[in-house]
């Protein structure tokens, strides 16, 4: 990696959301703090004290899963750990995104740092070394049932610690793990008792995808308020329904925040003023305009709930068995992904509905019978030009897919490991579909941004300061104002880009201050 790396310290406490994003997306280096190093060493000493015990201890001197009743002699335990990782690295499908792999690795390292897993200090240090060197194991998409940990994905990472498998180096080149380790000055390890389980028994993959999604949704929620305000303004809607005293009658916190954003975004609009006098015949707006705070607010509150679950999970030591503070090694069920899986599915439902109301506002702006005076499909010469007709098709197609992705994964369970693992969470699948949902939401909001900006221009009056700034940012990015039909796909991608890079939101906030 080029330049000076940010360094994130991993201690015995939880990794923050900001630290996770810095490592997963920003390539930050990782170091193990002294408190964590001491805790790791202490728990390893306890494991080694039990290694020669005549009593069997799961993961130390026994097989795994349905084979847990088989005692493994000391001279075969290195083979046991190596075989565990090789056999469990059974993923299939396309490679998982590097940011997901790095997020998963950081959360697994965070659990190792709690001193409850029995990992050796050298193994933990190598894990941190991979992240710092930008070495990203090649993890395949399929292989986790979200119970007993994200087994196949985490095993593919553990394989790298052994110098096996494939990785991408800091320059994104695919190469054998042994070569990449050597080039980075890192040496593979031979796993000892308990270490294989410690490396793979966690919800880290699904948790990493949850935290990344929460980070993205924070920005997209404010963008949704922004594009909604542009649509309300362009459609001659009224901001009066967003007044604080009306929201206080139903005091959901997310609803109040969304309504306050809409009021600020629409303040001072000449377009709103043009139809707000006593001569206005409009009685009340359609639900997709009037109920924006109720829907956007419910999504906000859903995200707040998911963030609370993620915070608990980030502060947890998820492994089986765990090393207790009084020196015992105990089996448990904390690896079950249900808490994370449920909120991943819950978020997919909320995302689908947020996109759905956005698409309805877009469609209303294009329908001459419902747009309060805008041209059909916002076309320059309707009939000759089709305007944004098919852009709405794009949004509708995405929303339809988001509804399918909103079907919960966590309600399914397929038994595994000869019925030893007879109920699983499918949390990894829930996380994978949520990532696709977040991308779809971004694209639906981009269609609304593109359409609402064109509609504001067709009104011919100055928009509010906040919405005008966003419209102007879109124009600066290369999307021209109203005119004859032109190749629309690149303009849609530009709208996606100004949402993804934060510049659309920054434009509004530069003139009206930070949105909630």
Description:
- By secondary structure, the protein is mainly alpha-helical.
- It has 2 domains: 196 residues, Fumarase/aspartase (N-terminal domain) (Fumarase C, Chain B, domain 1); 304 residues, Fumarase/aspartase (Central domain) (Fumarase C, Chain A, domain 2).
- Helices cover 55% and strands 5% of the residues.
- The strands form 4 sheets. The protein has a 3-stranded antiparallel β-sheet with strand order 4-6-7. A two-stranded parallel sheet has the order 1-2.
- β8 and β9 form a beta hairpin.
- The longest helix is centred in the C-terminal third of the chain and has 33 residues.
- The radius of gyration is 26 Å and the shape is elongated.
- The two termini are 35 Å apart.
- The mean pLDDT is 94.
Question: Main attributes?
Answer:
Fumarase C, Chain B, domain 1; two-stranded parallel ribbon; single chain; 2 domains; 516 residues; 9 strands; mainly alpha; Fumarase C, Chain A, domain 2; three-stranded antiparallel sheet; 20 helices; elongated
Radius of gyration: 26 Å
**Low-confidence region ranges:** none
Structural class: mainly alpha
- The third-level CATH topology of the largest domain is Fumarase C, Chain A, domain 2
Organism: Microlunatus kandeliicorticis
EC number: 4.3.1.3
Keywords: Histidine metabolism, Lyase
Pathway: Amino-acid degradation; L-histidine degradation into L-glutamate; N-formimidoyl-L-glutamate from L-histidine: step 1/3
